[in-house]
């Protein structure tokens, strides 16, 4: 699994709507990939925050910003 693939399925992973196979592949990727772990952590915190306050769904713009953040990081470190 590449970082791009991992990012694409992270939201579903947190919603536990991935197949077992895909979830296992993602977990294997996360073990070796610090940027994706950081992304997951940020994403989860943001989601928990929006859940607590309710009435505020995860804005699409926020998701896009997180994606851009990770892509920039990957480009800098050359990990992609
Ligand atoms: Zn990754």
What do these coordinates show?
By secondary structure, this protein is mainly α. It contains four helices and no strands. α1 (3-14) packs across α2 (20-32) and α3 (34-53) packs antiparallel against α4. It is globular. Zinc ion is lined by residues 3, 6, 29, 33, 35-36.
Instruction: Please compute the radius of gyration using only Cα atoms.
Output: 13 Å
Helices and strands: which structural class? mainly alpha
| pLDDT averaged residue by residue | 84
Largest sheet: none
Share of residues in helices: over 70%
Beta content comes to: under 5%
Question: What is the string of helix and strand elements?
Answer: HHHH
Shape: globular
Would you identify the regions where 5 or more consecutive residues have pLDDT less than 50?
A: none
In total, the number of strands is: 0
Compute the number of helices: 4
What hetero molecules are bound to the protein chains? zinc ion
- Tell me the quaternary state: single chain
């Amino acid at each position: 699994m590449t970082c791009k693939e991992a990012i694409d399925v992270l939201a579903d992973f947190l919603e536990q709507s991935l197949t077992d196979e895909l979830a296992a592949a993602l977990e294997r990727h996360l073990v070796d990939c610090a940027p994706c772990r950081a992304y997951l952590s940020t994403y989860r915190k943001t989601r928990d925050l929006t859940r607590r306050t309710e009435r505020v769904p995860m804005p699409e713009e926020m998701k896009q910003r997180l994606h851009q953040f990770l892509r920039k990081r990957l480009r800098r470190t050359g990990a992609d």
